[in-house]
Amino acid sequence: PASMSENEKYLDLQNSTKDKNMTLASYLDLQHAPTRETLIADIVKQGIPSKVYPELQPLFKILEIDFQPLKLCSLVNNMLAEVEKLYPDLSPYAADVRQVAVLRLMRQLAQVYDKISISKVVSLIPYIEPLDLELLIIEPAKTLDLQLRIDHATQTFIFGSTIQYQREETASGPTVQQMPSEMFRNQLVLLFRALNKSVDLISPTMKVQAKDALRHDSISVYMKSAKRDQMNMIKRKEMIEHRKEYYENLNTEKERAELQEREKTRREAEKAETKRRDEEEKRRTEERSAREEKHKDKLLKMEKVKKLMEQLGEKPFEGLTEEELLGMEEEELLARGIEYMSKEKDDLKHKMKQVEKRLDYYTRAQRLVEIPLMKEEWEKSQEDDKIWWEEKEATRIEMAIKKREHDISTRKRLLRMKDDKDEFVSSILSQKEMQHQEEVNRFEEELLRVREERKDAKKMEILKQLTEKRRKEELAKEAEDKKKQKEEELRKFKEEKMKIDEEARETQMKQEARMRAVEEKMAQKDRERSDRGGGGDRWDRGGDRDRGGDRGGDRGGDRGGDRD
Fold first, then answer.
1. Cα torsion for 511, 513, 517, 518, to the nearest 10°?
2. Cα 424 to Cα 88: distance, rounded to the nearest angstrom
3. Which of 145, 175, 101 is nearest to 3 (CA)?
4. Distance from the CA of 212 to the CA of which of 206, 233, 336, 560 falls in 20 to 30 A?
5. Which residues of 541-560 are buried (b: 16+ CB within 10 A; e: fewer)?
6. Which residue from 30, 112, 96 is spatially nearest to 63, judged by alpha carbons?
7. CA 83 to CA 98: how far, in whole Å?
8. In terms of C-beta density within 10 A (0-12 exposed, 13-18 middle, 19 or more buried), how is residue 92 classed?
């Protein structure tokens, strides 16, 4: 079942659980709330168990497929301990998985034992204490997810439940056999079905008679109150129309007043906005003029700096920002450029001397060592090339001789087959010519047959069109007759309805006349009684009449509220 909050647990709000299940089904776009079996089937169908971490893959098989209550919790605990070491981010889920393993262990033990000692169960679970075990199974036992009781006198768990406290549910996890209480319940269900079927066979008309009697009673009850209900519906409709018109007028007046208020607020806002825009435009114009003046001065100075940079280069001014360049005078910039150029010239001379000396030493050493080695390498390559060419040439000549001998032997062998080849080719050509002639004759026959079939099909199509046209004319005539019949029935129905409405209005007028006559008689009696009685008594009776009037008003108000 769906999880419940603490308040729901204490108040035992089962409807809240149903609402949660329906909400979950709507979120998942399902017609019914998902069950554990459907979710597991989808997980297996999508192949999710094979996509998890390799260390966690056996967990599904242990909890959902294998039946091994004596080793279940030990296997799960060892696996989770290893997973917590390798994947610390999964540690928060380990405690919940261990609790699920405990509940699965209790379900499997219930299929094997009638009762078992608490100490034996604790020995099968290496990570739980007896008190924690009892606290864990209390809630599932309360909701009948686990069919067990705790006997503290003998310190044992007793599996199974009485028939009246069981609920219909499907087994979760591996199942070996049913519990005795479940077998007893299934026998009672089978007995009920058999008895119900026997009653249907003995008296098959009983249900039909009961339905007919119920239908007759329903019709009689409806006919007794049909006119009264119709009048109440007419009055209710008129009252609803009056109220609707009243509220529409009220909303219209309210909307008109709100519209006028919004229009007034809008005009005031437009005036304030226009004033603010004028002030903003003035301020922006002044700021723009100041920025333009400042920009012009900056452009003039940057133009001078660019001219100096074109003459002296950009390197003397590297590392200086634009503000620093604008803050320096022209003489300072010129002096900085000249100083950099003289320093660059001295560095270049020094580098050229170093490169010249290094190149001279390298070239001399290269010529002294390289010349004898190059001569030796050239002579050796000449000898190697000569040997390689002689080997390749001998191989080529040998392969050419072998190829020539093979070609001669192949030609002699094929010459012996020439006569047979010519005879085979001529037979093939004559056979193909005969097949071609047969195909031509068959095509001409098929062409004649198709032409005849097309002529017959054309005739049938013309006949079909004539038949369809005649059928449509008949259908149109029948539709016109049905339309006239429906119009006549509608006219009669409207006349009957108008007659019923007229009778209802006459009945209402008669009832109102009778009510006015009764009220006049009661008023006359009250006046006569007041004339005969004393002053104090008149005040008392008058107070009673006031109270009676209040009670009548209350009853009238109640009836009016009921009609609404």
1. 20
2. 83
3. 145
4. 233
5. beeebeeeeeeeeeeeeeee
6. 96
7. 13
8. exposed
Between 130-142 and 94-110, two packed helices, what is the crossing angle to 10 degrees? 70
Rounded CA-CA distance 249/242 in Å is 11
Q: Which residues does 158 contact at the CB level (< 8 Å), separation at least 6?
A: 114, 115, 148, 149, 150, 151
Q: How many other CB atoms are there within 10 angstroms of residue 209's CB atom?
A: 10
Helix axes 330-415, 206-312, angle to 10 degrees: 120
Residue closest to 147 by CA, chosen among 121, 171, 176 = 171
Bridge-based pairing state of the strands 115-117 and 148-151: unpaired
Residue with tokens 């005539």: 477
State the Rg of the chain over Cα: 55
DSSP bridge partners of 150:
157
Assigned token pair, 84? 């917590």
Task: Return the residue matching tokens 């005009």.
Answer: 267
Please list the helix, strand and coil fractions of the chain in percent, rounded to the nearest 5, in that order. Answer: 85, 0, 15
Neighbouring CB atoms inside 10 A of 76's CB total: 25
Q: What is the pLDDT of residues 165-208, one digit of tens each?
A: 445 444 555 665 566 666 666 677 778 888 888 877 887 777 77
Q: Which tokens in the block code for residue 509?
A: 């007028």
Residues in contact with 205: Cβ distance below 8 Å, sequence separation at least 6, in sequence order: none
Q: Which residue has the tokens 């191989």?
A: 395
402-427 tens-digit pLDDT: 999 999 888 888 888 888 888 888 88
* CB half-sphere exposure, 553, CA atoms < 13 A: 6
Q: For residue 561, what are its two tokens? A: 């509220």
| Single pTM value for the model | 0.34
Q: How far apart are CA 142 and CA 121, in angstroms?
A: 20
